[in-house]
Every structure is written in structure tokens, then in C-alpha cells.
Design goal:
The protein is mostly helical. The protein is built from 15 helices and two strands. It is globular. Helix 7 (127-153) runs antiparallel to helix 8 and helix 9 packs antiparallel against helix 14 (277-296).
């Protein structure tokens, strides 16, 4: 990861300054919360995709920085709102906003971040980039609601699963790559190719997340969380689709009624592993990874393109 960051180290340092400025508020409570958010930021993978995509087609400029800030503002807003929806008290190992300041303030903070992102683009005339990211937010909301609808019945087929993760997870990464490319090339055709690149990476990224639920203690993340939350992920969908009715009904019963019983969850995990669900999901993950590489290879080879390839590899090779 450090080698990749070195390609855009100057841009990332500049971005940190600009992002901190972008979230400032004259309301002391809000400014305190923004400071808390900035200090506990994640890996910043989406801004990295923005800058590498931008740099592959030109010189990173102010539009590129605004695109990265917009992506991070919208991503952070959705995380804050997600924690309220999921009643989650932790985010990246720290207390979530709703845990510290309660749900009402957390919702308003998410709204503030969304509005700051919109204004950042509108005030600078970045209409094409705003269109890309606004479409992604719409897709994310639709994906989340589709997942909630299907989770109630546990009737998700593989095509519906991919539609959910394309919208819920991949759409924002797709928009980040498209926005970064457009900020330097101003070419809609190139931006669309990079959007498809980001979409494929995003799908592979989510499948990797699904696989963590069936891993072991070495991944640094507890297993069985998706099962407890009744989320139908790819390894589980494959297993159910390839089980006899008796076994299928038993697994569904556990997920619906015994999803807080550790032994029962372990039983489901073992069955998924032994039924080839993990291998199938890994095959699909690599399929989308290769699809992303094929798009990248349609552009001239360069140090930046190689950096993007390495970042794609990181998304599927990471251990947490």
C-alpha cells in the first residue's frame, strides 16, 4: 500500500488539508464532531482511486481535489447514516457518531456532510462530477433498500445479490474513478470506461468482504456478522442454491431464528466452507478483478496504471 501511496503522496497530503477545510463549520458542536471524523478517517481508498485515475490522464488539478473531497464527504455521510440505521456503536474501532452524540445529531451531521459536498461542486461549476456522484448516492440508497426488502424473505438469487452490491458498494467507487478521470481529461467516453473499471473493482471488493465472514481469527475481524444480520452473501447464496431442500430449510431456519447462537452460526459457516461456497465466491471475485484489469489494459502502460493495478490487487488480497 505504501508504494501505491508514494505515487500520489503529494496529492494525498494536499487533500488532507483541503478536506479539513471543506468540513469546517462555525457551529462549535459541529466543528468538534468534524474534527473527530477527520482524525479517525479510514484508509482513504476512494480518494486514492480518484487521484490515480486523474493522474493517468493528466495533471491533478483543483477539480481533482474537489472530486476527491466530494467522494469522501458523500462516503462519510453515508457511513454516519448507516450507523444510525444499523444502530451501530462502533466505526473503525472507535465510537460511532450516534454512540457519542445520539441519533438525532448523527442524522444532522450526515445531512451536513451531504450538503457540503453538493455546495463544493455547485459553487465551482463541477456539474459533470456532481452528476456522477449524485447518481452514485441514488444507487447506494436503492441498493440498501433492495437488500432490506430481500433480507426479510431470505429469497435473494445470485442476480439480485449482484444488483444489490453493484448499487450499494460498487457505485461510489465507480463514480470516484470516473470523476477522477474526468477532472483531467474532460472526456466522457474515458470517464465511462473508468466508471466501469471502478464498478468491477467495487464488486470484487464487496465479495472479498463477504468472504471475511467465513474466515478465521487471522483476518482481524469477527466471523458470522453477516449471518447474525441475516445478510445473504455470495458464499451463502451459492450454498443454498446447491443444497437439497431439507438442508436449505435448516440453514434458513438457523439464519431466521437462531442467528445469535454461536454454535449454530459456526455450523452454517462450516457447511458453507464444505459446500464450495468459499471457492465459488473467490472465483467470482477474481472474474471481476480480471474484468477491471482488462479495462485498464486498454490504456497505455505507465507507472500510474501499474499503481492502479496494485491497488486493485490490494482490494482482493487485504486481510481486513
Amino acid at each position: 500500500m505504501e508504494e501505491i501511496k508514494n505515487l500520489i503522496s503529494r496529492e494525498l497530503k494536499e487533500f488532507e488539508i483541503k478536506f479539513s477545510e471543506a468540513v469546517k463549520s462555525n457551529v462549535s458542536l459541529l466543528d468538534r464532531i468534524m474534527h473527530y471524523i477527520v482524525k479517525r478517517k479510514g484508509k482513504q481508498m476512494r480518494p486514492m482511486f480518484v487521484f490515480l485515475s486523474a493522474k493517468m490522464f493528466g495533471t491533478v488539478n483543483e477539480t481533482s481535489y474537489r472530486a476527491a473531497a466530494l467522494v469522501e464527504l458523500l462516503h462519510t455521510a453515508t457511513l454516519v447514516h448507516d450507523d444510525v440505521v444499523d444502530d451501530s456503536l462502533e466505526r473503525r474501532g472507535f465510537f460511532s457518531i450516534n454512540a457519542l452524540w445520539k441519533n438525532k445529531i448523527a442524522v444532522l451531521v450526515g445531512d451536513y456532510l451531504l450538503s457540503k459536498g453538493l455546495l463544493l461542486s455547485l459553487n465551482n461549476g463541477d456539474f459533470e462530477i456532481l452528476k456522477l456522484l449524485s447518481t452514485a448516492v441514488k444507487e447506494m440508497s436503492e441498493g440498501e433498500l433492495l437488500q432490506i426488502e430481500k433480507t426479510r424473505k431470505l429469497d435473494i438469487e445470485e442476480n439480485i445479490y449482484f444488483e444489490i452490491i453493484r448499487r450499494k458498494t460498487a457505485s461510489l467507487l465507480a463514480a470516484a474513478c470516473a470523476a477522477g478521470a474526468y477532472s483531467t481529461c474532460k472526456n466522457n467516453n474515458i470517464a465511462e470506461k473508468m466508471r466501469l473499471f471502478g464498478e468491477n473493482v467495487g464488486i470484487a471488493f464487496q465479495i472479498k468482504d463477504d468472504l471475511f465472514d467465513y474466515g478465521n481469527t487471522k483476518i482481524g475481524k469477527p466471523t458470522g456478522i453477516d449471518i447474525k444480520e441475516k445478510k445473504m452473501t455470495l458464499p451463502l447464496i451459492f450454498t443454498l442454491n446447491n443444497s437439497d431442500n431439507r438442508t436449505k430449510n435448516k440453514i434458513i431456519y438457523i439464519i431466521k431464528n437462531e442467528n445469535h447462537n454461536k454454535n449454530k452460526i459456526k455450523e452454517v459457516i462450516e457447511f458453507v466452507r464444505n459446500s464450495g461456497g468459499i471457492d465459488y465466491a473467490q472465483t467470482k471475485m477474481h472474474y471481476y478483478q480480471l474484468a477491471a484489469f482488462d479495462i485498464l489494459k486498454s490504456f497505455p502502460e505507465s507507472e500510474i496504471r501499474n499503481g492502479l493495478e496494485s491497488l486493485v490487487n490490494y482490494t482482493t488480497d487485504r486481510i481486513y
